[in-house]
From TrEMBL:
GO MF annotations, alphabetized: ATP binding; ATP hydrolysis activity
PROSITE patterns xrefs: ABC_TRANSPORTER_1, ABC_TRANSPORTER_2
Organism superkingdom: Archaea
Swiss-Prot/TrEMBL keywords: ATP-binding, Nucleotide-binding, Transport
Stated name of the protein: ABC transporter ATP-binding protein
Organism of derivation: Haloarcula amylolytica JCM 13557
UniProt domain ABC transporter: residue ranges: 1-222
Alphabetical list of CDD domains matching this protein: ABC_DR_subfamily_A
Length: 234
């Protein structure tokens, strides 16, 4: 698929497949096209050309896709005037997934149970991030899109997020993980894709990618190598 803005390509003929129940680490420098890709896959914008399917549904059918996905954007969509619990109850009601035991379980898991009856406007950035992730997980989605899920979190909360990603993937949820924190991707991802200037310039298992550079290389080395020059100059 391709996405252009005012004639400029944000994504150029992107073609990728993410197997069910795997974690796909989606990397790229700022402006590479990651946000445009995620917005297309979560039905927030349309591709200029081409198409995509998520959980077997065309992204052209927003209602069908949204039913199958959870999404944590970099800035979680929360209502400041609601309490944390009210926010989750509202979203659960919209989705017709009013499993209050699951709400309480997730609040407890992310250490939000003691603050659930406070208004969201009083939450720290890290608390809002955790609430946004709980919101994305509530309905047990088939595909989970995460954009910088550990942003603003202390080490303990970040560990909980990483453990949760591993667990939902083991339970057959597909996780599309976009982050600049490369050790998180090295730990969690089954496959990694690197986007640069709208082109997918590297894709493969982390070990395969690091092995393609030189002995002892890290994912950071791979990232720097494949984004050091424009694909057309490689």
């Amino acid at each position: 698929m391709t996405k252009r803005y005012s004639g400029v390509s944000a994504i150029a003929d992107l073609d990728l497949t993410v197997p069910r129940g795997t974690v796909f680490g989606f990397l790229g420098p700022n402006g590479a096209g990651k946000t445009s890709t995620i917005r297309i896959l979560t039905t927030l914008t349309n591709p200029t050309s081409g198409t995509a399917r998520v959980a077997g549904e065309s992204v052209a059918d927003r209602a069908a896709v949204v039913e199958h996905i959870g999404f944590l954007p970099e800035e979680p969509p929360l209502y400041d005037e609601l309490t944390g619990r009210e926010q989750l109850e509202y979203v659960a009601g919209l989705r017709g997934h009013e499993d209050w035991d699951r709400v309480e379980s997730l609040l407890d898991r992310f250490d939000l149970d003691g603050d659930a009856d406070r208004r969201v406007e009083t939450y720290s950035k890290g608390m809002k991030q955790k609430l946004g992730l709980v919101q994305a997980l509530l309905h047990e989605p088939e595909v989970l899109f995460l954009d910088e899920p550990t942003s603003g979190l202390d080490p303990r909360a970040a560990r909980t997020v990483r453990d949760t990603i591993s667990e939902v993937a083991a339970a057959d949820t597909t996780v599309f993980l976009s982050t600049h924190i490369l050790p998180v991707v090295e730990e969690l991802a089954d496959t990694v894709g690197v986007l640069y200037d709208g082109d997918l310039v590297a894709e493969g298992a982390p070990d395969d990618l690091t092995g393609s550079v030189e002995s002892g290389s890290t994912l950071e080395d791979v990232f720097l190598d494949v984004t050091s020059e424009r694909p057309g100059e490689r």
